[in-house]
Amino acid sequence: MLISAFERVKVGKVPVIPVLLDKRLLIVTGKGGVGKTTVATALGLASARAGQRTLVCEVNARERVAGLLGRPETGAQITSLEENLWAVDVKPHEAMREYALMILKFESIYNAVFENRLVRYFLRFVPSLQELVILGKILFHLKEKRPDGSWRFERIIIDAPSTGHAITFFSVPKVILDTVPPGALANDAKWMRECLIDPAITAAVLVSLPEEMPINETLELAAALKDRVQIQPQVVVLNAFIPTRFSPADLDQLAAGELRDLALAHQARARLSVSAADRLKALGHPLYTVPRLFTPTFGRAAIEEVSGHLGAR
Amino acid sequence: MNPIPDAVHRSNVLVCVGPGGVGKTTVAATLALRAAVEGKGSLVCTIDPAKRLANSLGLAELGNAETRIADPILAAASGQQPRAAMHAMMLDMKRAWDELIEQRAPADKREKILGNRFYQSLSTALAGSQEYIAMEKLCELRMQRGYPMIVLDTPPTAHALDFLDAPNRILDFLDNDAAKWLLTPALAAGKIGLKLFNLGSSYVAKTISKFTGVETLQELANFMLHMSSMYEGFRERAHQTRALLEADTTSFVLVTGPMPERLDEAVFFHTTLLQNHLSMAAVVVNRVHPPVPAALWSHAKKLPDELRKRVEATLNENDHLASQDARGVARLAELCAPTPLVLIPRFELDVHDLTSLWNTSRFLFGEAHIETALPSR
Question: Contact A163/B155, CB-based, under 8 Å?
Fold first, then answer.
C-alpha cells in the first residue's frame, strides 16, 4: 500500500493540493471538532509523499498526529514518523528553553538564568511570551538549513488552535511588537510577523463541516485572519461531505415509511453539504471536499483516504 | 433519577464544559431556555470568542450586555407561556477588563493602568486572562444581578481547564513570594523605578534584558506597581470565585460526543472535575446516532436492484455510525461511572433555532429517550 502510493508519486501524480505546493508554512485551523488534526496529518502525509521533508507541529494539545499514523507519541522531540515526515508536539516549557538557547547559545547561562525561580515568574507574566516561544520555535525550524544548504524542513504544517484562540495565537507577534521596546524579542516578533503575512511563504487552510454553525464560523474566521492577522486563507477544506445519492425518481419509488424517511434524511444531509460548499466557495478560495468516512477505527487507513481526497479537486 | 432537571432545580449556576465541536453552546442555551420557560429566570453567558450563541438563539448579534429573549419567541419554541424571562449575553473581554479597572482601581492609578502596554495586552491577548475575567464576570453576575439561574458556556478543552484553574492561578500569582520580594523595594520606596529585580547589573539581569529588552522589565515593574493596590481585591474575589465553583448550588455539565476521537478528552475532563471536587450533574452525550431498526433491512430487499443498493449503502452507514456510537457511549458510561449519562440524538438538521433547542431539551430532561446499547446499571 505504502509502496504503491509512493510509486504513484514517481509517475508524476502528486497527491497534494497544488496551490499549496509552493508554500513553506501551512496553518490548519477551524472550529473545534471539524477535523483539523486529520487534515493536518493528511496534508503532512501527502506532502511527504510528494518528496518534501515535512514537519507537522501540534501546539500544546493532546497529541494525536503520530497516533493517527499508527506510530508511538512523539512528545516534545521532533521525531521521524516515516520517509520525509516528522512530527512534534510543541509545549511551552520546552519551547521556552529551546528558544532561549537559540539566543543565549550557552546552556549553562540558560540554566542559571531561566531556571531561576524569580526569572521564570517574571517571564510568565510577559504578555503572550508562551505563544511567542511556541511560534518562535516552529518558525525557527522554517529557516533551519542542512549542511548542504538545503532546508531542514521544506514544509511545516501547524495543527493550529481552534478559531478564537487561533486569532489570538497568530496575533502574538503583533501584540509583542506593540508591547515591547526594540530588542531581541521585538526583532524576532518582527521577523515572525513578516513570515506569517507573506503569502509566498504562508497559507492558511480552513477546515469546516457541512453544518450551519461551523460554516458561519469559517466565514468569520476567514475575515478575521485576513483583517486582523493579515494571513491569507488559501484553501478551504469541507470535511465529512455527504455526496448526493438519491434522485427524485428514487424517492418517488419509495413508499411512505421508514425507508423513505431514511432516503429523505440522506438527501437533506447531502443538500446541506452542497449548500455548505456553495457558501464556502463564495470566499473565493479553492474548495476541497473530503467525504464523510465510515471506517471502523479512525487511524492510518482513514488518513490515507483523506490524503487522497486532498489531491483531487 | 433525572439528573438534568434535578441539577436545574437545585442549582443557580450551571457550567457547561467539554471538548470543542460537540454542541456545548447549544446545550447551554437549551438549559437556560428550559429553566426560563419553567419559571426559573435565566441568563446564558458564553465566553467563547466565536460568536456561536447568537446563532443558537436566532439572534444576529450578541454583546457584552444581557439581552432579553422576547417572550413570544420562548412561547413559540416551547408551545407554552414562559413563566420567567430568559437572557443571553456574550462576554467582551476587553470591556470587562476595562470595567474592572474603572470600578476597582484607585482613582489616581486608573489612567496609568489603562494606558500601560502590559495592561492592554493583558486585557486583549494574554493567554489565561480571558478565563480569569470570565470568572470575575460570573461572580459579579451571581452576586449583583440576582438571576435565579446562570448557565455558563466555556471554551474547548485545554482552555476550559485553564478556566477552572484561573482563580487558583491568580491567587498563586498574588501569593507568590517572588512577586512580594520583587515589589517590596519599590513599594517601600513608594516610587516607580525598580532596579531590575533588585539585582542591579548582575549577569542575570543583563541576560534577561537581552531576551526581553531592558525597558520591558521596567514597564512591567511599573504595571505591577500600579496594580499592586488592587491585589487584596483580586485575592478576595479569587477566593469568592473558587467558593462559587465549589458551592452546592453550582453544578457542572460535561458535554461531549460519542465519537472515539473525543472520548479521551471527555474522560480527561471528567477526571479533572472530580479531582477538583466539583459537582458533576451529568455527562451529556450529544449527537448520538440511534440504531437502525432491523425490519428496514428486509424491507429494503424488496426494492428494485439499483435503488436497493443505494438504500442498503445508507442503512450500512447509519448502522455503522450507530454501533460506533453505542461503543463510545458504553465506554463513557464505564469510565465516567457513577456520573449519569444523558443521551441526545443527532438531529437531521443543525440545531440552531429555539424550536430545535426545545426538541433537544426534551431529551436533556428525560422526556424523550433514544435506544442504544447503553448498559443498564
Answer: no
Over residues B44-56, mean pLDDT: 64
CB contact under 8 A, B350 and A272: yes
* Predicted complex: ipTM over 0.95: no
Chain A CB contacts of B314 below 8 Å:
245, 262-263, 266
Instruction: Provide the grid cell at B338.
Output: 457513577
Query: Tens digits of per-residue pLDDT, B310-347?
Result: 999 999 999 999 998 999 999 999 999 999 999 999 87
A214 touches chain B (CB under 8 A): yes
pLDDT tops 90 at residue A38:
yes
pLDDT of residue A174: 82
Q: At what angle do helices B177-189 and A117-125 cross, to 10 degrees?
A: 80
Contact B370, B288 (CB under 8 A): yes
Q: C-alpha cell of B284?
A: 451529556
Does B122 sit within 8 Å of A258, measured CB to CB?
no
CB contact under 8 A, A262 and B314: yes
Res. A89 pLDDT band, cuts 50 70 90: very high
Q: Which of A31, A168, A259, A264 should we substitute to test contact with B (largest number of B Cβ atoms within 10 Å)?
A: A259
Closest CB from A60, A119, A253 relative to B204: A119
pLDDT at position A14: 44
User: Does position B212 have pLDDT exceeding 60, yes or no?
Assistant: yes
Q: Phi/psi class of residue B367: alpha, beta or left (left: φ > 0; alpha: ψ in -120 to 50)?
A: alpha
**How close B368 gets to chain A, by Cα (Å)?**
19
- Which band of pLDDT confidence, cut at 50, 70 and 90, is reported for residue B178? low
Whole-number Å distance between alpha carbons of B328 and B311: 26
Q: Chain B within 8 Å of A270 (Cβ-Cβ)?
A: no
- pLDDT band at A9; cut points 50, 70, 90: very low
CA dihedral B189, B191, B197, B202 (to 10 degrees): -80
**Minimal Cβ distance to B307: which of A131, A183, A250:** A250
CB contact under 8 A, B127 and A254: no
Phi, psi of A295 (to 5 degrees): -105, 145
In B, which residues are within 8 Å of A167 by CB distance? 49
Which site among A251, A294, A300 would you substitute to test the B interface, given the most B Cβ atoms closer than 10 Å to its Cβ? A294
What CATH number does the domain located at A22-64+80-97+127-309 have?
A: 3.40.50.300
Any residues with CB less than 8 A from the CB of A170 and at least 6 apart, and which?
A27, A135, A160, A196, A225, A229, A231
Asked if residue B229 lies in contact with residue B106, where contact means CB atoms within 8 angstroms, the answer is yes
Q: Which residue has the cell 436533556?
A: B364
The values of phi and psi at residue A290, to 5°, are: -115, 120
CA-wise closest residue to B58 among B46, B45, B70: B70
The minimum CA-CA distance between A7 and chain B, rounded to whole Å, is 31
Residue A8, pLDDT score: 36
Q: Indicate the pLDDT class of residue B248, thresholds 50, 70 and 90.
A: very high
B34 neighbors B79 (Cβ within 8 angstroms): no
